[in-house]
C-alpha cells in the first residue's frame, strides 16, 4: 500500500503530465480564434488530505482492492501579489464545486473562477504551494476536467476534459511514473471505467459519443500490449449506452436504455475478456438498474404490479428476471432518488410527499431504519464514499447552501455537520401541507420514463444514480414507516407545500390561509413556497414561479445565490411540481407526457391561480422562470393565460416542439419520441402537439414581457426554433398593438443569444445579473439592495 507522500507525488506527476499532454489533443479541443483567457473559466485543485485504508473482502470472488479517499474540500486560492484586484474580480460561482470522481472511490473537487489573472492546478503541502498546471498555457477555450478515473493498480489515470462551449469530451490516459507520459487520447468519450484482467493488466472501457448519442463501447489496453477495439455497438438509434462500475468493483455494467426500457450486461471485473452476461433482455416498459454485493445482484426495477420502482434481489450466477425476488418496496407516492450499497447495508434516498427520507436496510438482519430529514431540505447531493462505516451526503434548498450529514451505521444515527448556522434559520420557517381531492383520479395509464439530462449523473455519482423517476407503491413485503406530515417547524426558509388546483373543485381538508386545491381532473398538485417569515401583506409582494414538468425529472431545487437574494429582498418563490415531472413518481410522469401534456399546463395554471387566491402576490407582480423543456409549459401558459403573468425568463427553452420532433436529422429526436410523441407518423400525436406547442399557438394578444437566453452551440435545443418563436411572437405583439391603438404599452421581448456555450453550461454572474435586472425593471421595483446583496453572495 502506498503512503501519503507516494500518492501525493503521483498526483503531482499526473498533473505535470496533463500540462504537457493536453496541447497535443488535436483540433477538436482547440479554438481557431484565441480568446482573452483572463475573462474565462479556469480550474484549480488543491491537495488537502489523503487517507488510505484497507477494504475488506466482499466475497471469495471479489478482489481485495485498497480503498482510497482523496479530498480537496474547502479549497483555497493562490494568493498573488495583486490579491485585492483578484478577489474583486472573482466570478459568481467560486463557491460552486464540480465533483470529480476517481475509481476506486477517490474524490476530487474543483473550483471554477472567472478571473482577470491566470489560474492554476496546484498542490499544497501545509502552507507551501506548487503550481503544477497553468491552464492559460493550454490555449483552450474554458477548459476543465470533467471526470477522473484511476486504474486499479494506480499505474494509469484517465481524465475526461472538455470546454464550456461543447458537450463533447476528450479522454486522455496518462501513465504515472517518474517520467509520466500520455499513453493515448480518445475523442468524444462519454463514460469510462477501469477494470483489471487475470494477468493484472489494466483495461479501460469507454463509450464513444457522436451527435449526443452513445452507441459504441470500446475496450483498450496500454503499455507493451497496447490495443483498442470496439466491444459493443447498439443498433437501435432510440437507445444509448453508458458504463457503471458496481460499488465493490466486482462487475462493470453495460447499460442500454431509452426513455421506457433498459437492458444490462455484466462484464466480469476479474475476467474482462470473457463475453458479457445478459441480466435480462429488454422488455418494453421495463427499466432496471443493477448493484452487486456478496455474490448477489440488487436490482432496482419497475417490473411487475404496480409498475413502480422496487428493489429486487437474485444470485449473481442466476440473473434472469424469473429469478428476481422482491426484496424491498416503498409506499405510494415515494420516489427513489438514489441508492448506495455498502458492505452490510443498503441506503435508499427517498422523497415522499415532498419530504426527504433516508432508509437504511441492514443486509445481515433485514432491519429497516427510516430517517425523516430536516424539513427545510429540498434535495440530496450524493457524496463519493468508500468508508463501509459511514454514509455521507448533503442536503440543500434553493435558498440555503448545502449542508453535510453523515449516517454512521454502528451508532445507527445521523450526524449533522457542526459549525456556523445559516442566519436564515432564525428568520424563517418551513411548513408542508397536503389536501386530498374529492374527485376520483383519472388517467392511470401505466407508463414510465427517464430524464434525458439525468443520464450523465448515473455514472458521475458514486451511488447508483437513478435516472428514472420512480413512484413506488405498496407490495407484500417490508415497507418504511412513512406517512403524511404537517410540520410547522422553525427551520430553514418558510417553505409551504400546498396542493394547487383550478376553481372547479375543492378539497375536504381546509387549513386556514393555506387551502389545498386540486387540478381540473382531481389531481393534487404540490408546490413548495419560500418567503421571509416577517413579510407583511404578501399580496403586494413579487412572486417568481418555477416550472419544469418533463422526462420524469424533479424541478431543480439546488442552492442558487440569486434565489436567496430575492427572498431576502421580499420576493416569494414558488416551485410548482406539475405532472410530467418526477416528484410523485412514475405515474406522475406518465400523466404528463405524450397525449397528456396538457395536464401539466392545467397544473401550472391551477398553481398560479391558487397562489393568488391564497394571498400570495397578484398577476401584476407575478413572474415565471423555466429552463429547457420547462419552456414548453411556460410558453404554453403565455399563450393560454397571459393575464396571469407580468414577466417571464426562459433559458435554453424548448419552444418549437412540432417542428423539432418532425426533424429526424436532429440528434435527439428518436430518443424523445416516448416523451412528446411521433408527429411524423401518428396524426393523433401531431394534432395533440399542435394544441400546446408554444410556437404553434402564438396569437395577436397582450403577452407578458419575456427574456430568452439561448446558446449558440446548444445541440439539444436548436437555436433555429427559438429564433422562429421570437420572430412570430414579435409579429403577433405588433399586430395586437395596432388593434389596441394609441397608448398601448407593448411588452418587452428580449432574445439574448450567448456566443459559444452549450445546453449544460454553468451559470455566470453576467447571465444572472441580466435576468434579475429584467425582472426588477419589468415589475418597476428598486433593485439597489438586491444587487448589493448579490455582490456579497457572489463575490464579484
Automatic annotation (TrEMBL):
Any one Gene Ontology BP term: proteolysis
Keyword Zinc appears in the UniProt entry: no
GO CC annotation, single: Golgi apparatus
Domain Peptidase S9 prolyl oligopeptidase catalytic: 559-774
Domain Peptidase S9A N-terminal: 127-413
Pfam families registered for this protein in UniProt: Peptidase_S9, Peptidase_S9_N
Keywords from the UniProt entry: Cytoplasm, Hydrolase, Protease, Serine protease
Subcellular localization: Cytoplasm, Cytosol
Predominant cellular place of this UniProt entry's protein: cytoplasm
GO MF assignments: serine-type endopeptidase activity
EC nos: 3.4.21.-
Subunit structure and binding partners: Homodimer. Interacts with the AP-1 complex.
Entry function: Serine peptidase whose precise substrate specificity remains unclear. Does not cleave peptides after a arginine or lysine residue. Regulates trans-Golgi network morphology and sorting by regulating the membrane binding of the AP-1 complex. May play a role in the regulation of synaptic vesicle exocytosis.
Name the UniProt record assigns to this protein: Prolyl endopeptidase
